[in-house]
Every structure is written in structure tokens, then in C-alpha cells.
Amino acid sequence: MQSINRHYNILDFAIASLLRRKGKNLALLTIYTLIVALIASLIFFVQALKREAAALLQDAPDIVVQRLMAGRQDLIGLENIDRIAAIRGVSEVTPRRWGYYYDPVFGANYTVMADAKLAPQAGMATVGLGVAKNQRIGPGDIFTLTAADNSLILLNLEKALPFESELLAADMILLNPADFGKLFAFPANAATDLAVTVANPREMVTIANKIVETVPGSRPIMKSEIIRTYDAIFDWRGGMMLLVLAAALLSFVIFAWDKATGLSAEERRETGILKSIGWETGDILLLKFWEGTAISLTAFLTGVIMAYIHVFFFSAPLFAAALKGWAVLYPAFHLKPFIDPYQLSTLFFLTVLPYTAATILPSWLAASADADSAMRS
Amino acid sequence: MIQHPAVIALLSSATIISLMVFYAAYYGYKIITGWDLQSGSEQQLMLERRTYLISTVIGYAMAFQLISLFLLIYTADTLHPLFTGAMCAAGSLGANSFGYPLLLLKVANAVFAGIWLLINRLDSKGYDYPLIRSKYRLLIILTLLLVVETWLQYRYFLNLKADLITSCCGSLFSSSSRGIAGELAALPAKPMMVLFSGASLALLASYSYSIVKARGWYLFAAASLFFFITASAALISFIALYFYELPSHHCPFCILQGEYNHIGYLLYACLLGGVVAGGGVGAAEKFRKCGSLQEIIPGFQRRAATVGMLFNGTFIVVVLARIFTTSFRL
């Protein structure tokens, strides 16, 4: 109890002494908070993007089979469907026909996909919200796409896809297979790729291997590989940004070191007085510890709250361009707030640890000065 | 190398901690060679002041070191989707040959550092710096171990390569390169149960004996160490099974996850606390005859042993509570 009281009293004194030097400490605190907020935003944002990507990819096909031709992706023949479906463990093989369409008028790239369910008749189309906004069309309107032979295809907009699908389908146009074939002069007996559903996820690797054997020149891509690649890309982008921010971090550490070393005459006198009334070096070090803790904790918590607002309320405008990727029809989406102790401890190691390490030596220098020399100077 | 923010945090913090400890060890060396309490020279005065700095530096470094142990495990766990066949931290750590040595060294260093802090605390109680040379000799060894750990950590992370989709092939190489075994070899459950019970009883017996008779502290330290090793092995062998309620899942890392209420943190903290306290008791016994500490050490040992027993006791109670409340039976 006595030892808790000692800590409590010294903490009390530390906060009072911080408040006495408002100007100097406020400058330090502001920069510290900004650094924490910057790095926290980065960590939260990368994590939230990864979660978002993983959640979306949960609905991706188990295996996508592409065909390679001279090292480039090529159309895959429909005759392969039966061969793949014959592999034991494969429960479904669906051909997917899709491509990109560049709209020179609006300067945007659309993803066009053949879908007999959402566009059951020729001339019908369903589009993503981004496309609808970009073309300024609504349900019931007519719009045109230029086909491969330069003729125009007239399309009736049936409906726009709901907002929930925004992240995946903002730039999507779904056409009847007949229109799709006409638009791209797409061969009838081929597909862009095949989506394979596997009953037991543990058999995925074996089945992928068999697909390579039965369909020479094919490239099966498993869902786990796509998730893994996205993870690595977001990590890599986050890491790159962090290395860029390392310069800011380093200058902050130098700033903190400088602030801690450059003791004012008043501070030196204070140490001298404390020592002459019976404080020991250990007590003054404890005082410095509590001062540092108060500053770090304030900066850390404020910074985390600022980052939270920046990332989850405003979708991280500072980093979005560098981390998300870019497109004309970029989906508008809000990230789901998510913070865990892991992110916070990473943040702690990146900010509080360097700060603390930089201030130990100056605190000790201040604490170990002799009472008389400190007061006299 | 994987440029995950946490990996950068771990590498940079390991570097900073190493530098801090290295700095402290440098002055520790000066103290070993130049310490003379009888002298009133300027150098002696300077060294006496430095002891405060060293204690502070090591105190911070060790606190960071302990957190970084858990951050490492958590990071390894987060990275597992990047490796074919890895299911959790067990797989990521096995992704190259540096992972497990790194983890073991990190645990050993955490224990060693904890014991060093206890010795330091003991030393600060005596007015004549009775343990000063011994503790700084230990500090130099600890520094070397920490530097090796930092080196291992760099080797581990720099050699990690994610299995990504390349332009030439998708899953082709993932199946040709062998998946990482996600399971650790486990000792058979029944003998381990007997051994674990034996270690618990031995610990309790040696604690009671030492408290009543005020001797046998080396025995208590040995019993603590034995309990630590046995309990760690038992955790993999059968305790984990009760937490997962799966007869084949031996992973020592998954119990850190939210699915199991992060109970692993409590268990590992208890194990570490227990072995550090036990080791501190043993170390104190070595210095029993040192001048000003003669009065202090018996009380210190009783307190440390009791704290150690509380840690280990909590571990045992939590484990038993789980074993008897879950419907899972081996």
C-alpha cells in the first residue's frame, strides 16, 4: 500500500510538473500524437482492407482454371468442362465469360460478364452502381455499347445492383450470353475461365494437380492462393508506407531526444531542489518514468482515436490512393471498424518504444546531477 | 522478406533493445573491472551513478522483451496464410530453420532476464552493492544471448518467403513443394499426465519443506524448473487437447486465440512467472552469505517462492478446472 502511495504521489507531482511547462510539453505531445495517429491509421487501414478482401474472397470459386497460351492467359475450350467434372471430388464446373470494356466517352473501364440469370433475354442488362452513376442512367433507360465489329448494341437497363455489392460490382455490366458473344465476337465454344467447386477443401491441392494433368496448359488457381496473394500485397504496401514514415518517426525520436536533453535552467534547479530536500536519484528517475508514461499514454490514446476517426469515418483519405489501388470507377465503401490488441502492440513497438529508448539517457543525466551543481547552474 | 508492419516493428524493436542492452553491458564491463567501493575517486562516483542508468535501461529493455515474445508468436500466427499448409504459428515458425530456435531462445531470454531483474532488486536492497560484480557478469552473458536472438530474428524474417501466385503457375508449385507440418510431435498423454501430477506434487512438497524449515531452496528452484519444463510438455501433450476439445490438436499457439478466450496468455504468463520466481529463489541462495544481504535474503526467498507458487498454482487450477468442466474426455 505504501509503495502504491509513493507511486501515486510521484505521478501526481509528475503531472503537475508537466503542466507547469505547458508550452514545451504541448509541442512534444502534438508531434507525438500526430506520429502515432499516422502510423495507427496505416496499420488500421491495411488490416481493414485485408479483412475486407478476405471476406469478399470467401465467396470466390474454390479453384479457377485458366488456360495459358505462350505464357499468356487465353480462352479455355468448353470441352474441358467434362474432363474436369470427371475428376473425383469436383462437385461443379461452371464456365465464366467475362472481359473488360473501355468506354471512350466516359473514360472508364467496365467489367462485362455474361449472366443468363440476371439478364435472361437478349437486350437486357444489369449494371453496378458505379457504371450507372458514370453513365448517368437508371432502371428503364437505354444505353449502348460498341461491339467488336463497330456496330452498336442497344441495351435496356433492367436494374442497378444493390449497394452491398458495391466493392465487387461497381464497374460490372451483366449481359445476356448472346449479347456478350456479339459484343466481343466471343467464340461460342470457349469461356474466359472455369470456376470449379470442390466438395472437400482438403482435397483442393490434389484436385488442382489432377487438373494440370488432365488439361495440359491449364493454370488452376486456388482460393487460398488468391487470399494469400492479396494479404501479401496489402502487407507489402503497408510495409512500404511504413518505411517511408520511418523518416518521420526518426525525426520525431531526434526531436524527443533533443527536448529531453535540453533541460532548461528552471528544470535543473527543480532537480537540485528535489535532491536537496531528500529525493534520491531513484525517485527522480521514477518521476521521469511517470512523466514519460503520462506523455506516451496521452499521445498513444489520442493518436489511436484520431486514427480510428480518420480510417473508419473518413476512409483514410491520406493513404487511400497509395494503398487501395486506383480506378476511375472506384467503389465507395466504408471499412468495418476493427481494432485488436495485436495492432495496438505493433503500434506500441513502433512509436512508444523508440520514444522511451531516446529519453532514458537524458532522464538519467537529469536525475543524477548533484544537488548543489544543479542549483548553482 | 515479408514487409508486414509487425515484422518491421519486431525487427526494429529487437535492434533497439539490443543496442540498449549492449550500452548497459559496456558500462557493466567497466564496473566489473573498475569497481572499488572503498575509493572516493571520480571514476567510482561516475560508476555508482551509472548503476542507476543500467538498472533503468535493463528494466525497460526487459519489459519490451517480454511483450515482444508474445508479439512474435502473434505475428507468426498472423502470417500463416502466406505459407502452404501452415495452419497457425506452428507452421509459420517451421517455415524456415530459424523459427523454432528463435522462439526457444526468446523464451529462455525472457526467463533469464526476469531472474536478472530479481537479482538486481536484491542487490539494490543491500547498502554495499553486494552483488554488483556477479550481476554485471550475468548481464554480459544476457547481452550476448539477446544479440544472438536479434540475429536469429533477422535471419528468420529475412528468409521467410510467401508462397504467392506467380505468372507461370498457380498451385503447381504449392503442391510440389511440401506443405509445412502444422503439428508438433507430442508425447503420449497418459505418462505425461502422471509426470505432470508428479511435478506438481514435487513442487508443492518442496515449497512446504522450504517454507517450514527455511532451507532447501536449491531444491525448490530445481522443482520450479522441472515443473516449467514438464508443464510445457504437458501443455502440448494433453492440456491443449482439453482446451481445443479435439483429440489430435496439440498446437501450443492456438490457445492464444480469441476462440479460446486468450486463455493461453494467462497460462504462459503463469508458467513464465513461476519459473522466474523459482530461478530467483535459487539465485538468491547462492548469495546467501553476502555481507549485507544475510538479513534480507530469507525474507526475499519466502516472498519469491510464494509468488512463484501462486503463479504455478493458478496454472494448475486453470488447467484442472478446464479438464473437469469440459465434456471432452481423452
Number of strands of chain B: 0
CA radius of gyration of chain A: 31 Å
User: What general form of chain A does the structure show?
Assistant: elongated
The unreliable regions of chain A are: none
**Average pLDDT metric of chain A:** 86
Structure description:
- The complex is a heterodimer of chains A (377) and B (330).
- With 377 residues, chain A is of the alpha+beta class.
- Chain A has two domains: 2-57 and 228-376, no CATH class; 63-222, Barwin-like endoglucanases (Beta Barrel).
- Helix content of chain A is 56%, strand content 18%.
- Chain A contains 13 helices and 13 strands.
- Chain A has helices spanning 2-20, 22-57, 80-85, 129-135, 166-169, 177-184, 204-214, 223-261, 265-276, 281-313, 320-324, 341-367, 371-376, and strands spanning 63-69, 72-74, 76-77, 90-96, 98-103, 108-114, 124-127, 142-146, 152-160, 172-175, 190-191, 193-198, 218-222.
- Chain A has a six-stranded mixed beta sheet with strand order 5-6-10-7-9-8.
- In chain A, a hairpin with a 5-residue loop joins strand 8 (142-146) and strand 9 (152-160).
- The two termini of chain A are 38 Å apart.
- Chain B is mostly helical.
- Chain B folds into two domains: 5-163; 189-325, Four Helix Bundle (Hemerythrin (Met), subunit A), CATH 1.20.120.
- In chain B, helix 1 (5-34) runs antiparallel to helix 2 and helix 8 (217-244) runs antiparallel to helix 9.
- Chain B is flat, with a radius of gyration of 22 Å.
- The two termini of chain B are 41 Å apart.
- Mean pLDDT of chain B is 85; it is low at 167-183.
- Classes of the chains: A alpha+beta (377), B mainly alpha (330).
